[in-house]
């Protein structure tokens, strides 16, 4: 790894037959040294950022140890917003007191007076109003923004539509049947082989059924798309299996229900609409104004009558393929009766779409304190140009929430900024572009308080997908065969896996100094005849 990173010193490592610096212990120490160098660089950059926020989540690893992941979001030296791994810590418990203590310990090396925002997955231990981690941190750092991850919020909005006692009754049974079908074939190699044979008979793609998961709605999308493509084979095989398997008989009976095919088409259309939002909400360095735009577009799309028309077109197109769906068409003639589509719409489709819209609206209310930053958008300033008090209320709200912002100075700068925003170089910029302009070195001297406000807005994390990426790296590093890694080594390996530098860009001279100075008896074959490391 070190050689790939561009280190030329390793050609001199072979000092003797028993001194080559290539043992497992030395290699592990080298990896930890690289991690230490990356961490030192991160601390320096965050310390120079006017504001920073942290994303937090927890998971259980392969050795059944609870891991707490922290990713810090800050303004980098080049003025861009960055998100990097701060720490991966093993914690003894998942209660709020333990998690808060671990977070404060991990962030102790950073300037806590600039700690402005905290994002989590929305678990009760994280955002509980009385004793959650967010509230405990707020007690110590007044003005701290606590944010519920937007991807988790969207997932909850959708999954509530199919939950027991909450969702649409038919869709609850539908989701259960999809998962039961997956486990029916997953639990038997004979059944799986029988389904593959049916796929060959019907000349369909050789696909494996997928199971849905309410905690990961995107997995339900995969399950729906696969079933839609191989439905004829599944129907034919369940029909055969039903002769000897009671479970298959129950599944086949539900698949023959008149509402099942249009429901499958409905879920296919809705999944495709939601897929883009989920992809956007998991982007690195996602900005809060983008969330507002995506939520507004999603609600508008779900309310659009065209959505219902897309479902009907998909259903009718599916029915037109009589050769592949013959087993279904022979036994469910209700499709051709008058009023069928109206009954399906009233029973399943319209209640589902209405409930989904309501859930999205309730899960994504106004952006709260973050919404006050919208007045900095030139478009909004142009709309309120005739109002002499435009934006003052928002500036006062920001000053009350964030102690570092002084209301009087902020209002003075706001008046001057409104005139600046009407100039050609800013007039056509988006809110995010304006905020980045405000944190540029030259602008910070003109608008120091507005610049600080812009830094707070830009560093506010609205998702925790970056922590999920850290956990994905954790699964690759800590495996069943490597489940006894030391906590510090595990942290370093995951840091290098996520934020490790590209070959040729890493400062190997700093690494070598740190490595050799950590042990005074280490020797190196110097090609320069006595460099600073050999003195």
Q: Could you give a quick summary of the protein structure above?
A:
By secondary structure, the chain is α/β, with parallel strands linked by helices. The chain has helices at 24-47, 96-106, 124-127, 133-140, 150-159, 169-186, 189-201, 217-241, 246-255, 260-281, 288-303, 305-319, 326-331, 340-363, 378-383, 392-401, 407-421, 424-427, 431-438, 441-446, 448-458, 465-477, 487-499, 508-517; strands at residues 52-60, 66-75, 81-91, 115-120, 145-148.
Provide structural commentary.
β2 (about 65-75) and β3 (about 80-90) form a beta hairpin. Helix content is about 55%, strand content about 5%. With about 525 residues, the protein is α/β, with parallel strands linked by helices. The protein contains 24 helices and five strands. The two termini are about 25 Å apart. The protein folds into three domains: about 10-150 and about 465-515, Nucleotidyltransferase, domain 5, CATH 3.30.420; about 155-365, no CATH class; about 370-460, no CATH class. α2 (about 95-105) packs across α4, α8 (about 215-240) packs antiparallel against α10 (about 260-280) and α22 crosses α23 (about 485-500). It has a five-stranded mixed sheet with strand order 3-2-1-4-5, with helices on both faces. The chain has helices at about 25-45, 95-105, 125, 135-140, 150-160, 170-185, 190-200, 215-240, 245-255, 260-280, 290-305, 305-320, 325-330, 340-365, 380-385, 390-400, 405-420, 425, 430-440, 440-445, 450-460, 465-475, 485-500, 510-515, and strands at about 50-60, 65-75, 80-90, 115-120, 145-150. The mean pLDDT is about 85.
């Amino acid at each position: 790894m070190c050689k790939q990173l561009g280190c030329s010193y390793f050609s001199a490592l072979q000092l003797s037959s028993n001194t080559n610096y290539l043992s497992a212990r030395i290699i592990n120490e080298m990896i930890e040294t690289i991690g230490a160098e990356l961490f030192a660089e991160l601390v320096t950059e965050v310390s120079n950022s006017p504001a920073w926020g942290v994303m937090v989540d927890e998971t259980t690893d392969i050795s059944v140890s609870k891991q707490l992941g922290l990713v810090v979001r800050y303004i980098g030296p080049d003025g861009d917003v960055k998100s990097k791994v701060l720490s991966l810590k093993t914690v003894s418990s998942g209660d709020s007191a333990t998690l808060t203590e671990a977070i404060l310990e991990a962030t102790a090396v950073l300037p806590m007076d600039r700690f402005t925002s905290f994002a989590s997955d929305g678990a009760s231990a994280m955002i509980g109003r009385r004793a959650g981690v967010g509230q405990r941190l707020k007690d110590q750092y007044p003005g701290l923004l606590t944010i519920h991850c937007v991807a988790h919020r969207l997932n909850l909005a959708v999954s509530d539509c199919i939950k027991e006692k909450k969702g649409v009754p038919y869709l609850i049974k539908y989701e259960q049947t999809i998962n039961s079908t997956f486990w029916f074939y997953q639990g038997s190699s004979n059944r799986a082989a029988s389904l593959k044979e049916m796929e060959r008979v019907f000349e369909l793609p050789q696909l494996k059924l997928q199971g849905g998961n309410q905690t990961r709605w995107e997995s339900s999308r995969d399950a729906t798309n696969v079933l839609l493509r191989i439905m004829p084979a599944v129907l034919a095989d369940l029909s055969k299996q039903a002769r000897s398997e009671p479970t298959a008989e129950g599944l086949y009976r539900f698949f023959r229900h008149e509402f099942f095919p249009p429901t499958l088409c409905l879920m296919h259309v809705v999944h495709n609409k939601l897929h883009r939002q989920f992809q956007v909400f998991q982007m690195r360095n996602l900005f809060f104004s983008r969330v507002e735009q995506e939520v507004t577009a999603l609600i508008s799309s779900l309310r659009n009558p065209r959505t219902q028309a897309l479902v009907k077109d998909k259903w009718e197109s599916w029915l037109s393929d009589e050769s592949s769906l013959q087993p279904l068409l022979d036994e469910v003639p209700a499709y051709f009766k008058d009023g069928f589509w109206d009954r399906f719409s009233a029973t399943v489709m319209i209640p589902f779409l209405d409930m989904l819209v309501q859930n999205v609206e309730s899960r994504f209310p106004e952006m709260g304190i973050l919404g006050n930053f919208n007045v900095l958008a030139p478009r909004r300033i142009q709309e309120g140009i005739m109002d002499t008090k435009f934006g003052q209320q928002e500036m006062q709200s920001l000053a009350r929430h964030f102690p570092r912002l002084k209301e009087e100075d902020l209002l003075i700068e706001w008046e001057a900024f409104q005139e600046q925003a009407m100039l050609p170089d800013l007039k056509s910029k988006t809110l995010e572009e304006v905020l980045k302009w405000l944190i540029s070195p030259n602008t910070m001297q003109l608008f120091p308080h507005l610049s600080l406000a812009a830094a707070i807005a830009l560093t506010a994390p609205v998702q925790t997908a970056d922590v999920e990426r850290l956990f994905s790296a954790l699964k690759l590093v800590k495996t069943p065969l490597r489940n006894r890694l030391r906590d510090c080594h595990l942290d370093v390996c995951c840091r290098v896996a996520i934020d490790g530098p590209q070959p040729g860009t890493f400062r190997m001279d700093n690494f070598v100094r740190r490595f050799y100075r950590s042990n005074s008896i280490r020797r190196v074959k110097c090609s320069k005849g006595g460099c600073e490391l050999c003195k």
